[in-house]
Design a protein that fits this description.
Layout (H helix, E strand, L loop, with lengths): L2 E5 L2 E4 L4 E8 L7 E7 L6 E6 L6 E3 L7 E6 L4 E6 L8 E8 L5 H6 L7 E2 L3 E6 L1
Parallel strand pairs: 2-11
Antiparallel strand pairs: 1-3, 3-8, 4-5, 4-9, 5-6, 7-8, 9-10, 9-11
């Protein structure tokens, strides 16, 4: 499996921006769909968005669609989550996860058993009001 390490979290004021990175090693990164999740304090982990193998397709959760963007640089084995106009409710531990997928981006997400994906350790994002 691919190994993932998130970075870039921290403390930011409301309205600010952060870009998280997800660095991969151990496998050919371009062969993996990458997804971002977050877990707010005391809540369940939730899907933020995902990006296809080449980066040509993305899917962002409605709660983040207008403010977040996902990209990747396969040459650097890294995926990114750019977060703008941050709100206190964006406070969470953010995780990236990856899976080779069955060959279709939409089916990869629709049929995903995310628990079986490769996961990073998470990075804390705290948004102060």
């Amino acid at each position: 499996q691919v190994q993932l390490v998130e970075s870039g979290g921290g403390l930011v004021q409301a309205g600010g921006s952060l870009t998280l990175s997800c660095a991969a090693s151990g496998r050919t990164f371009a062969n993996y769909v990458v997804a971002w999740f977050r877990q707010p304090p005391g809540q369940e982990r939730e899907f933020v968005g995902a990006i296809s193998w080449s980066g040509g397709l993305t899917r962002i959760a409605d709660s983040a669609k207008a403010r977040f963007n996902i990209s990747r640089d396969n040459a650097k084995n890294t995926a990114y989550l750019q977060m703008n106009s941050l709100k206190p409710e964006d406070t969470a531990v953010y995780y990236c996860a990856a899976d080779p997928g069955p060959g279709s981006f939409s089916k990869t997400l629709e049929l995903a058993d995310f628990k079986s994906w490769s996961w990073g350790q998470g990075t804390q994002v705290t948004v102060s009001s």
